[in-house]
Protein: YhdB-like protein
Amino acid sequence: MNKADYDRALHYAKLAQWDHLLILMVRTKDDILSKKIEQFLHAYHFQYDYTRMEYCFYELLRYAEYANEKAAGEQNEAIFV
Structure:
């Protein structure tokens, strides 16, 4: 897990930097993060239903925060072992 990818995903999503989010989607090694970004960007550009776009956005944020906390915990365990 690369903690920087999750930090970037949160940063780009909250600042509405969709181009950078797309680049992150292609470059990240985390398939789930890539899929969440893809689903959100597709909903943002092609869905007419705002609730679907909002749902995908919050799913992306939720996963990025979860994975970020998990990666931070693994880094802390590695430091203290």
Observations:
- Residues 50-80 form the longest helix (31 residues).
- The chain has one domain: 3-80.
- The chain has a mean pLDDT of 89.
